[in-house]
């Protein structure tokens, strides 16, 4: 039975059970249960396992080296589910201890399976929000990587930090303004829109865009910002008409 087919009380009991079994494995330098849950076909079972791993890592300093070694070994597993969950677990750890998981993020970006690479994007999002300085410094080295997908993934990954602190990621986004790959360019325009609709963000984004020199891209970004304020009108600080007026007055 799938995780969300269970009644709430049974789901809570299962999450507790997963945590206890992972504790058992990490305590004994084992990986039987860890690998079983990391390889489960149910997304929410795997999520429970990687969240538990992050909590155990934070709560048991004496096990941290062993947990890191176990994750690195499991990343060699042929199952994309296992490798994906390793990266997500590393993302939980990296929200506080990025230096411990940076090698796994490097490897995950190059993984052959899209689900593993997507896990890097998700991990960069949550790590960048909670632990921005080392994460953004790491991300910056990939902005001009020869692989267009890596450039796109990094652009997407830093988005979440930008929703609350656009000034932190705008210098990185600016470096991508002349990227000629459509997928990277489209992601860049999307991210600019996403970091512009919360309180205090529009002004920062518009001010920065004035200094960009790719006029065609900036025009597309402005169009996206205006459009986002309609698509997300229930969550935007300004109405679309207010945004149009602000841009007309200030750009």
Description:
The protein starts with 7 loop residues before the first helix and ends with a helix. By secondary structure, it is mainly α. The chain is 73% helix and 0% strand. α9 (148-157) runs parallel beside α12 (182-194). The chain has helices at 8-27, 32-38, 43-59, 64-74, 80-94, 98-109, 114-130, 132-140, 148-157, 159-164, 166-174, 182-194, 201-209, 215-231, 240-250. The mean pLDDT is 96. The chain has 15 helices and no strands. The protein is elongated.
The gist of it:
This protein has 251 residues and is mainly α. It contains 15 helices and no strands.
Provide the descriptors you would attach to this structure in a database record:
mainly alpha
| First-last Cα distance | 55 Å
Largest sheet: none
- Low-pLDDT stretches: none
Q: Given the C-alpha coordinates, what overall shape results?
A: elongated
Order of helices and strands: HHHHHHHHHHHHHHH
Structural class: mainly alpha
Tell me the number of strands. Answer: 0
**Mean of pLDDT:** 96
Helix content: over 70%
Evaluate the radius of gyration: 20 Å
What multimeric state do the chains show? single chain
């Amino acid at each position: 039975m799938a995780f969300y087919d269970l009644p709430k009380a049974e789901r809570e009991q299962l999450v507790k059970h997963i945590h206890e079994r992972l504790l058992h494995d990490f305590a004994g330098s084992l990986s039987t249960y860890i690998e079983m849950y990391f390889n489960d076909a149910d997304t929410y079972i795997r999520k429970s396992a990687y969240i538990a791993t992050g909590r155990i890592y934070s709560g048991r300093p004496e096990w941290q080296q062993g947990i890191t070694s176990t994750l690195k070994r499991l990343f060699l597993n042929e199952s994309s589910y296992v490798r994906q969950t390793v990266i997500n677990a590393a993302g939980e750890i990296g929200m506080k201890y990025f230096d411990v998981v940076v090698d796994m993020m490097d490897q995950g970006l190059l993984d052959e399976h899209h689900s593993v690479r997507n896990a890097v994007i998700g991990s960069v999002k949550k790590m960048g929000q909670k632990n921005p300085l080392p994460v953004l410094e790491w991300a910056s080295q990939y902005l001009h990587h020869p692989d267009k997908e890596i450039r796109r993934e990094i652009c997407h990954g830093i988005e979440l930090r930008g929703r609350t602190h656009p000034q932190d990621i705008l210098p990185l986004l600016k470096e991508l303004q002349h990227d000629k790959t459509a997928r990277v360019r489209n992601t860049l325009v999307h991210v600019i829109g996403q970091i512009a609709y919360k309180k205090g963000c529009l002004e920062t984004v518009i001010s920065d865009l004035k200094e960009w020199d790719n006029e065609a891209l900036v025009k597309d970004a402005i169009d996206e910002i205006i459009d986002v304020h309609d698509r997300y009108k229930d969550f935007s600080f300004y109405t679309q008409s207010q945004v149009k007026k602000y841009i007309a007055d200030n750009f």
